[in-house]
Specification:
Helix 6 crosses helix 9. The model has no long low-confidence stretch (mean pLDDT 88). The strands form two sheets. A three-stranded mixed sheet has the order 1-2-3. The longest helix is centred in the middle third of the chain and has 39 residues, at 103-141. The protein is built from eleven helices and five strands; from the N terminus they run H-E-H-H-E-E-H-H-H-H-H-H-E-H-E-H. A hairpin with a 6-residue loop joins strand 2 (60-66) and strand 3 (73-79). The protein is mainly alpha-helical.
């Protein structure tokens, strides 16, 4: 044991040695290979430690790089943190990224990315329009008063077929609105569309009259027809429709008729 050596190690600041990597020094390929064989903490120990740095102080080093695309060798002023990341990329054989690409190749790379994104967006828009058209067509089929759901279709499935639940799964609202408002109202009430809306409203009311709370024979009634044609929108069904028993239904219409007469 060499106590004098231990004393020097404990009380000397080995990170202040002028032989260490200092601000502005060139880290070339040879030095990079040396650092690649070290652990992260060991790499950090190879850099001179600067004390009392402010947030605006930048300690940069000149780093030698080979562009993975064009093969150009160039240098760039970068931070110690970036150097550690680049060494990690080299060890992982992941050098085809913005850390290593030269300015010209990075500009061209970003240009190609934008072109691909534009093509992808156009493809997405086309697919979205096709999906919207197909969905609108499906809703129109539900507006055929001569059609009906096949036997055995549950109330839950009827609701799921008609009531859209999230953005992107609704038909062309204006087209459906016009289609419904051009229909005879009695025909409308015999469509699979209304069957799905009606089942949604009954379920949300827990199959009870929303005025007296009685169960039994129930009707789904429009409180207002301002949004007629948009009943498949849950917000419209929740606010514009009401579930009534036969007795409350008669009272409801009686009050409306009196109000209209006044």
């Amino acid at each position: 044991m060499n106590k004098e050596f231990i004393k020097n190690v404990v009380f000397s600041d080995i990170r202040k040695n002028d032989n260490l990597i200092k601000r502005g020094d060139l880290i070339d390929f040879e030095l990079t290979k040396i650092l690649m064989n070290a652990k992260t903490t060991e790499i950090t120990n190879a850099f001179y430690r600067y004390d009392n740095l402010t947030p605006t102080d930048k300690v940069l080093y000149e780093y030698q790089i080979k562009c993975p695309i064009c093969g150009k060798i160039y240098t760039r002023m970068i931070s110690k943190t970036r150097i550690l990341n680049m060494i990690k990329c080299i060890n992982n054989k992941d050098t085809n990224n913005e850390y290593f690409r030269c300015e010209e190749c990075e500009t061209e790379y970003q240009k190609q990315i934008k072109i691909k994104q534009s093509i992808s967006h156009e493809k997405w828009e086309k697919e979205r329009k096709e999906e919207l058209a197909n969905l609108t067509l499906r809703y129109k089929e539900y507006l055929n008063p001569k059609a009906c759901f096949r036997d055995g279709v549950s109330a839950k499935d009827k609701i799921n077929y008609i009531m859209y639940q999230k953005y992107g799964t609704n038909p062309d609202q204006d087209e459906i609105y016009k289609e419904i408002n051009n229909m005879d109202y009695n025909d409308f009430l015999h469509t699979p569309y209304w069957d799905g809306v009606r089942n949604y409203k009954l379920k949300s009311a827990n199959y009870r009259c929303q005025l007296c709370g009685n169960s039994g024979k129930l009707n789904v009634h429009h409180k207002t027809y301002e949004n007629h044609g948009r009943e498949h929108m849950r917000s419209v069904a929740d606010n514009d429709l009401i579930v009534l028993c036969e007795n409350c239904h008669r009272k409801f219409h009686y009050k409306l008729d009196r109000a209209a007469g006044e």
